[in-house]
Amino acid sequence: MTEYYSTITGFFGNSNPEKLLKEFGSPLYVYNEKILRQKCRDMKNLVEYKNFVPNYSIKANSNLSLIKIVKEEGLRADAMSAGEIQLLLHAGFEPEELFFVPNNVSESELKYAVDNGVLVSVDSLSQLELLGKINTGGKAAVRFNPGVGAGHHEKVVTAGKKTKFGVNIDCVDQVKEIAGKYNMKICGVNQHIGSLFMEGDSYIEGVKSLLSVAEQFEDIDFVDMGGGFGIPYNKQEGQKPLDLASFKEKLTQVLEQWTDKYGKKILFKTEPGRYIVAESGVILGNVYTTKANYGNKYVGTDIGFNVLARPVMYDSHHDIEVYRNGKPLNEAETEEVTVVGNICESGDIIAKNRKLPVIKEGDILGIMDAGAYGFAMSSNYNMRLRPAEVLIKEDGEPTLIRRRDTFEDLIANFNI
Ligand code: LLP
C-alpha cells in the first residue's frame, strides 16, 4: 500500500472516520471544503485568456452547501433539468449566470427556463423549433456533436456517431434557417464530448472542431467547450493527475489565435463536474462481515450500490482506505479481497479482488474520490436510507449539510 490520501491531505480535519460515523451514522458522505475550493480555483485558472469562466455542472453533486461554496469561488453553473435550475436560483445564482443544457425536454421545461431568464442550449433541430415558438425574437445556444467522443466508459461518451447527443456539425445551415424563422439570435455554441479524460489533447482537438463550427456564425458571444476533466481514481497505484500547466499553455494558444481570427474577444466557458467535486468527497462505511465463500474472501460493508453506483455501473475503480481505532491501518500484511455492499444482488461489488490490509470486522472503510456522481446517483433501493452528508469546514470542524433519510421520507409519497 502507498501512503494514505486522507492523511496527506488532512481530509478529515479535526475529526477522524470513527468519530464521524459515531456522530453522524454509517454510511456517510464526507466532503472537505479546502479541497473543494482549491479545485474551483484550478478550474478558474484553466486558461490564461481573460474572458473565461467555468460553469459547474451540478449533476455531479447538487448538495446546496457545496453549490454555495462553488458560487463563492466565482464559478457559474450548468443545469440539466428544471429542478437543477430551481436549485441554482435558490442557491443565489442570477439567471444570467446559468446555462440550461438539456436533452429531449418538454415544452413546459423549456418555457420554465425562458420564463426565468435562463439561456437554453438545444440539442436537436426540433428542439430549436420548439424553443423558437416559445422564445421568438430571443436568444438560443446550440449543442453540436463533433462526430468524435471520449470518456472512461462507453456509457459516458457523449458525442460521436453512436450517441444521442447534439446537432451534427454539418447542420449549421438548418440551424440558421430555423433561428431566422423565429428571429432568434444564436449567441453561443457548446459541446460536451464525454466524461473523464486524463490527457488534454483529445479535449483540445474537440475544441478546435467546435471553433470551426463557431466561426460559421457571424455574431456569437460565447463558446462553451464542455466538461470531462478527469481525476486520478487510482492514486494507490501511482496514477497522476491531469497536467494542467501544459494544458493551460496549449489551450490558451488555441483560444487566443482563434479570437484574433474571429475578430472578437468572445467568452469561453467550460462545464466541469467531476473535477470540482470528486476528490472533495469520501464515503465512509462500516465493515460488518468478513467471510470466505468457496475460497473467495469477502468484506461486507454498508456501502451498497444504492449509495455508490459507479463501480457497478461502469466498473469504476475507487481507491479504498482502511481505518482502525480512528487511524489509517498501515499494516504491512495485505490480502486479496472482494469488497461488497448490503444490497440483495450479487453484482453489488465495490472492489473485486483488491489487495488491501487484512481487514477485520469493526474496521471502517473509506471509498475515496466519491464526491462526484456519488450521492447524486444514490437511491432508496431495498428501502435503504440515503446517507447523511457532512462537510469538514476550513477550520477543520465537521458540520452536517444534509441529514440522513428517515423512514418517514421513504413513505412520504405513498397515497394511502
Ligand atoms: N456537461 C454536460 C452536458 C454533461 O452531460 C456532463 C456530464 C458534464 C458537463 C460534466 O461532465 P464531467 O466534467 O463531470 O465529466 N455518472 C458518470 C458521469 C456522467 C457524466 C454525464 N454528463 C460517472 O460517474 O462517471
Automatic annotation (TrEMBL):
Pfam families: Orn_Arg_deC_N. Pyridoxal 5'-phosphate binds at residues 228, 271-274, 373. Pathway: Amino-acid biosynthesis; L-lysine biosynthesis via DAP pathway; L-lysine from DL-2,6-diaminopimelate: step 1/1. Its EC number is 4.1.1.20. One of its GO terms (molecular function) is diaminopimelate decarboxylase activity. PROSITE patterns: ODR_DC_2_2 (PS00879). The modification N6-(pyridoxal phosphate)lysine is found at residue 59. One of its GO terms (biological process) is lysine biosynthetic process via diaminopimelate. Belongs to the Orn/Lys/Arg decarboxylase class-II family. LysA subfamily. This is Diaminopimelate decarboxylase. It comes from Ruminiclostridium cellulolyticum (strain ATCC 35319 / DSM 5812 / JCM 6584 / H10) (Clostridium cellulolyticum).
